Amino acid sequence: MLKIEDLRVAIEGKEILHGVNVMVNPGELHVVMGPNGSGKSTLALTIAGHPRYEVVRGKILFDGEEITSLGPDERARRGIFLAFQVPPEVKGVRIIDFLQQVLTELKGIDPAEAYELIEERARELWFTEEDLRRYVNVGFSGGEKKRLELLQALLVEPKLLILDEPDSGVDVDSLSVISRKIEELHKKGTAIILITHYGRILAHIDTDYLKVHVMKDGRIVRTGSKELIEVIEREGFKAVFSEVE
Ligand code: ADP
Ligand code: MG
Ligand code: MG
């Protein structure tokens, strides 16, 4: 479903990704790990079509079609959703209006029906009707921001969900509801790319198929199974990298 070939990406002329290859089939769960600055968010934002990230070589295919030069809106329409590492604050835009618009544009759901859907899903992620009238992410805690990203993902039900550190800056209770919702989407058949520093979030996610990619300096240097996470948690990235060098 997603095929990334020899992807090289630059920001403001500086190459950050130096040839990344990834293949994700429908419904698969891929975990991306790696030290800070290794290029995880760059990869996520490039797949989602962020205009700042310039593809200097290679290509991204989705559902058999090249999407490398498509804008983020078109990618979203095709079923790609990115939950940001740092969700942006949008002053003046209320959550409910934003979500209604997303559902109307992406799924063709009329506003009244969208409202019911949003309210129901919001409750599952501990947002009240009152919360939904707040501005998007303005004054939100880490846990609230990440729960709101998950709420969007649940409503959109994308084919491919990219989660950039959904577990960072999050309280334990939020973490448990977030991982349950990730599992719910996974069970429904959503393919997931999960960027994380911790195996903790995976403890709650029951899966038959899990692939782990480890990034270093703009490259995927190791791909393996769940055991790789245990090695990293026990011995750090060094243990993984020393085998490479
Ligand atoms: P990670 O998510 O793995 O921590 P990033 O993808 O955020 O890594 O960053 C990879 C590298 O790209 C880092 O060296 C970072 O400084 C650089 N970088 C990321 N975003 C920008 C940007 N907007 N402008 C310049 N450099 C950037
Ligand atoms: Mg980082
Ligand atoms: Mg990052």
TrEMBL record:
Residues 2-242 form the ABC transporter domain. Keywords: ATP-binding, Nucleotide-binding. It holds the Pfam family ABC_tran. Coiled coil: none annotated. This is ABC-type transport system involved in Fe-S cluster assembly, ATPase. One of its GO terms (molecular function) is ATP binding.
